[in-house]
Design a protein that fits this description.
Layout (H helix, E strand, L loop, with lengths): L14 H6 L46
InterPro entries: DUF7230
Pfam family, one: DUF7230
Length: 66
């Protein structure tokens, strides 16, 4: 008793398509400087909350008046 194969037969390798996918035939894509692009987000946790890139003078609210 022979069991029928239900899966597809794999196609032979397409040598012409592989040759066309090489770098010689690929178009060179240059980024358009006028095109809209999203700005990169800052990674979370890169700067601690209590560190600031500038010095903050102590105000009256932060000093203890007792």
């Amino acid at each position: 008793m022979k069991i029928k194969l239900t899966r597809k037969q794999s196609a032979p390798p397409n040598l012409a398509a592989r040759a066309l996918s090489e770098g010689q035939f690929r178009p060179k894509v240059e980024k358009n400087p006028k095109a809209y692009s999203r700005k990169q987000k800052h990674p979370k946790g890169s700067v601690m909350e209590h560190q600031l890139p500038f010095s903050v003078p102590a105000g009256e609210d932060e000093q203890d008046n007792s």
